[in-house]
Write a structure and sequence with these properties.
alpha/beta, 7-stranded mixed β-sheet, about 40% helix, about 15% strand
Length: about 280
Amino acid sequence: MIKKSFEKREKDIAKKRFGQNFLKDEAVLHSIIESMPNDNLPVVEIGPGLGDLTRYLVEIKDVTAYEVDKDLCGHLHSRFEHALRRDTQKGRLVLHCVDVLDQWNHTSLADQPYHLVANLPYYIATNIILRALKDPNCQSLLVMVQKEVAEKFAARPGQKAFSALSVLAQEAGEAHICFDVPPEAFIPAPKVVSSVLKIVKRKTCDDPQFEAFLKAAFTQPRKTLAKNLSSRFDKRAVKEAFEALGIGATVRPHEVDTSLYHHLYKFLADASIGS
């Protein structure tokens, strides 16, 4: 059980610098559990907070959790005393009181294939998702994020939300929004609607040059794709690429299929090497 001192002060406990909004709605918690992949792989949880989702995860999975807030780490150690894995006791939970991004700079978040499940702070959600897509041990992501961010990862070509993040997600696997979550499901309540985003990976993608190409392609979404790319690549090469691939000169970034972005990237990369 949550210590009464924590239960009474949840709004005060949440720290703005960590973007903390504690998910308290039991129906939403159950829906997250039901949306998880049905296999025997362990789970990595980022930002367990008060442990409300963690308590369900440890009932069905081995869990490795990363919490940056030292105050909450003390609470989690107390709450999950019997579930924590120790040298002489094989529990279901391993708790790391570190910044998960620092951990990712050195190695994977787990030494074996895993599923990522988390209620992510809005301010680092995109960064964490991109890191997970690059982590070869991460097999899937089931994460709570701001709805606008989820839409960018899950969007399909032709939709206004389609972006560089959409292309990267589709390159790695299949992304979709499971359901939306209203602000009142959290303490304290955020000012925006959240969504649970699921990405099931087919492969690991880590190509900084392709990411830079996509950044250029979507620099100004309302302008034409040709104009955006011409700011980085030779205009003649861009024109030749569009003609070779049958892409209209007035097409905008969100109107191009993911596969065409790969062909464009290769065409322009080869043109740069040859020039």
